[in-house]
Amino acid sequence: MDILVRTPQAASICQSLAQTKEWMEVNDASIPGLVSLAERKEQRSVARLKRLDDHWYISLCTEDTYKLMVDTKKIQVPHPISLNAGLVESEFHPNPTDRQVRPFLITDKNIKFVWAEPVTFPVFIPTIPEYLDSCLSCTGGRSHLEDESCGIPECDLDYLSRYLALDSPHQQDILLSKVHHAKLLEDYFINRQRRQEARMKKVLERRRKRSWHRNSGPQVPFVMLDL
User: How many domains does the chain have?
Assistant: First the structure.
């Protein structure tokens, strides 16, 4: 679980947690299945800790890690981890009046959380526009093909696009009016459309080839059939 902390306070917070004797600082190699950031300067500002009486790991991420600031508007949620994704900001739902259309809203009854008991501390997450700005700041308009460090934020942009139906011009207009990096987001939408068109062209070409192979077998005239 990633926890955003103010950059000047990161070292003291990490030290304070270690002094409780409940947390131990660890390196990436000791965390099973860790999807780490690509090697870059910002990665050095991430401290990782493991709870000694459990298998929980946390990452203290400074503000320069994901280009997110602590002292900006955040959204309070009832729990840090849900088993199925739930949308908090209903204004960004593709169709909030139709509850048969996903994504689920956090207020829906079918949202399940990891622990049965409620958390005893407040949990805040970035707003969707702020998170989009974070991803756009990390990529700077580049793709993972140009810079491997853009892979994770690029994937997050793609996930959000599918989750919020951002191929819809209406959805795009809502978010373009709320992000700081509107030009980068607009360029991302254009590039995403091109990628989808190229992908669909390849799918149609594969279908055409399969259809041709199915129909290219030897044709036996009807008069030669031995009935």
Answer: 2
